[in-house]
Amino acid sequence: MFKFLVKRILWLIPVVLGVSVLIFTIMCFTPGDPARNALGADASQESIDEFNEKHGLNDPYLVRLGSFLKSTFPEFDLGTSYINGSSVSEQILSRLSYTLRITYIGILISIALGIPAGIIAATNQNTWKDSLSMVVSLFCASMPSFWFALLLVMFFALRLGWLPTVGVKSWTGYILPCVSIGIGGAASIARQTRSSMLEVIRQDYVTTAKAKGQSRSRIIWGHCLRNALIPVLTAIGGQMAVLVGSSLVCETIFSIPGIGSYLVTGVNQRDYPVVLGCVVILSLIFSLTMLCVDLMYAVVDPRFRNILKS
Amino acid sequence: MQSVKTSQKTVRKSQFGMVMKRLAKNKMAIVGLVIVIVLTLIAVLANLIIPYDYGYQDTGALLQAPCAAHLLGTDNLGRDILSRLIYGTRLSMKMGILSVLLAAALGTFFGSIAGYYGGIVDDIIMRFLDIYQSIPGLVMCVALAAVLGPGLNNSILAVGITTMSGYARMIRGSIMQVKGMEYIEAAMAINAGDRRIILKHIMPNAISPLIVQMTMGIGGAILMASTLSYIGLGAQAPMPEWGSMLAGGRSYMRDYGFIVIFPGLMIMTCVLAFNLLGDGLRDALDPRLKD
User: Fold this and answer.
1) Residue of A142, A255, A262, A293 to mutate for B, most B C-beta atoms under 10 A
2) The whole model's pTM is what?
3) What pLDDT digit, counting tens, does each position of B170-183 carry?
4) A-contacting residues in B 108-167 (Cβ below 8 Å)
5) What is the ipTM of this complex?
6) For residue B80, which phi and psi values (nearest 5 degrees)?
7) Is the preceding peptide bond at B238 cis, omega within 30 degrees of 0?
């Protein structure tokens, strides 16, 4: 288990390095003039030359890549913004907690709604409860999260005035953003829970448990769900990628000062160091979460522990 | 020879027939198919059926609630929302279908090379895809759209490139399944070229799951493209893309909710239809997957 953990953590190094090189390369070779984007169309040639010199944009690709990796990894220096000269690392660190809160509360909402909905559907297969939860989840899975966020704002913030429209000054500010990004994930998790529960429910050991006279709740939670959880965990991992993506738009809609809104601002201003830094950090958050999901496999299913031991 | 050809045709036909029969029994899939057909017709006939030009501004009816003259109301510039939604169907379908075609083409290229050649080529491509998939889809898409610049075609490119890894993995898996089979060995023995083996002998086996994945992918691609438009990286004004219509209507939603309700409903209906059809096709092709 320890070996697996070390191996899995070490795998993060090439992943983060690879992501950085990939995004840096894409930014480097895409046509466009960062200097003109930053300084405006009327900028003089001297100021453009000075800008290129200052940010090392005249150097060859490999030199730029080398200096980027050298400064990023040992020192965690993601460079400075082309637009206002602020440190990208500092900005990201100050915004990190908002994004983490939104994303993780979002996934908790997805799990809290999705797993019970899937269980209800599976244990009441072909009844109105099953149809209702699957139809609702189908609609939720097809709904754009930013549209749902707008609808929530329209009703709960603008019409009813129960919750704030923007900002996260108190805990109430987190409700709408987290629900809006969590609902799509809940739908996918519900569908996955239903199908893997249905597979497990037909197994002989469930019949045996029923024959022994075990309570319904013990059969469902103790026997069925535990064995059905592996594919559900995979679905939760997949949803994390969606949630991290949705947080970009959600932070913009609710004016939350997280990494997502920083990325969108960077994109709109063509501020490449900001874009690069945000993508690397968001990918790192995602990879770390996937690491946790992998570890959860071992916690949930003893067979995984045995495989890892052997 | 003739009889062999005929029997092959019969088997293929009956397989296709069975898939269609199973699909026809799936009510949800049929609902999805009908909506897809209707949306396709709307997209194709958009110019003929729009009541007003999508850019026409009725200055006497700004932010008009749904009425007889404007069935779904007008936006802040007096443009008819129904006409814009109808024309937007064409844009969204174009974005969804073209980006999925691009993703499938790129995925098939990389996946078939990885699966067919194996060894170090496979290792390199798969490790690259591992790294590629470590970047959350929408984040990658936004980064690509940032460097490509805003616009409809660039957003198609960004969505296509972002989503290609799923297709590459699927094609690689299918190729690895059939690679060791005798008919491939036989093709190699008669000195058939790699390209011929991949395209003529291997790909037909992978085409069914590819079609299912493409159908299911269109919904996701439309969703991603509309998100790009919402944040200003997709289709640009005055193009009536659904995502950009939502972004434009945001400031007025307090008093004029219909401005944001209808474009969102269109996105949801379109994505839902492709998801239902994709689910139905998957179940029809492999009934074991159902439940």
Assistant:
1) A142
2) 0.86
3) 888 888 888 778 88
4) 127-128, 130-132, 134-149
5) 0.85
6) -70, 120
7) yes
Considering only the beta carbons, identify the residue of A26, A146, A151 that sits closest to B147.
Answer: A26
Min Cα separation B275/chain A (Å): 8
Q: Give the largest CA-CA distance in chain B.
A: 76
Residue A223 maps to a domain: yes
Are residues B191 and B127 in contact, defined by beta-carbon separation less than 8 angstroms?
A: no
CA distances from A40 to A47, A51, A56, A83, B51 (A): 11, 12, 19, 10, 41
Please report, for the domain that includes residue A211, its CATH number: 1.10.3720.10
Instruction: Give the tens place of pLDDT for each residue, A169-186.
Output: 888 889 999 999 999 889
Cross-chain Cβ contact A279/B143 below 8 Å: yes
| Out of B135, B145, B275, closest to residue A141 by CB | B275
Whether A288 is covered by a domain: the verdict is no
Q: How far is CA A205 from CA A198, A212, A229, A299, A309, in A?
A: 14, 10, 16, 21, 26
8 A C-beta contact, residue B210 and residue B183: no
The answer to whether residue A122 is domain-embedded is yes
A243 found inside a domain = yes
What is the distance, to the nearest Å, from the Cα of residue A169 to the centroid of all Cα atoms in its chain? 23
Q: How many domains does chain A have?
A: 1
* 8 A C-beta contact, residue B171 and residue B106: no
